[in-house]
Specification:
The chain is an alpha+beta fold. 22% of the residues lie in helices and 39% in strands. Strands 1, 2, 3, 4, 5 and 6 form a six-stranded antiparallel sheet that branches.
Length: 192
């Protein structure tokens, strides 16, 4: 078993400044070239013997797209992750973005609690937490209904005899219908 060897760490400012990287841009909605504006670059290694060592490299970068949008990028490499199937390199963008990422929109005149639920719902969707996303969507609808004092609305209900009747409901479907009645929400219906 190898014993702990000499550890070497080196932090370099702006070692990767000016380097161009191709990553997804949230504003452009596609992969674009970005330039590293500023970076903190950490090299680390541990020597156990002349023929056994491990090392890593971390690049913490503020990057700028040609459109002007700024992001944070963490690029890393670790010798122990390198093998026949992997280069040992990983990359993370913050905010975490890719082609399927929904951007968070800024809404005016919406209660703070509804904005918070909306932001968390978008984050849940972007992290594939779809059950939490569904709960968040319901919370948003309930929050808007509370803000607009909508407590019920007309819905179609099937009766025991098989016929349909319009009734007022205070459940979620009734509240959504109530938003439509108050012309706060428009439902689009497609022809079949």
């Amino acid at each position: 078993m190898a014993t702990a060897g000499k550890i070497t760490e080196k932090l370099t400012e702006n070692k990767t400044k000016g380097v161009e990287v191709r990553v997804y841009c949230l504003e452009c909605k596609r992969e674009q070239n970005h330039v590293v504006v500023v970076s903190a670059d950490m090299d680390w290694s541990q020597d156990f013997s002349d023929d056994f060592w491990i090392s890593s490299e971390d690049n913490y970068q503020v990057i700028r797209c040609k459109c002007g949008h700024l992001s944070f990028r963490h690029s890393s490499w670790f010798s122990e992750y390198e093998d026949r199937d992997s280069s040992g390199r990983t990359e993370k963008l913050y905010p975490e973005i890719d082609a399927d990422t929904l951007p968070v929109k800024d809404f005016k005149n919406v209660p703070d609690i509804v904005c918070r639920i909306y932001n968390e719902t978008i984050q849940a969707f972007n992290h594939d937490c779809f059950t939490l996303c569904a709960a968040g969507l319901r919370g948003i609808v309930e929050g808007v209904c509370a803000d607009k004092a909508v407590t019920d609305g007309l819905v179609e209900r099937k009766q025991k005899d098989g016929s349909f009747q319009m009734v007022r409901s205070d459940k979620l479907d009734g509240k959504i219908s109530g938003l439509c009645e108050g012309i706060m929400l428009t439902l689009f219906q497609t022809e079949s």
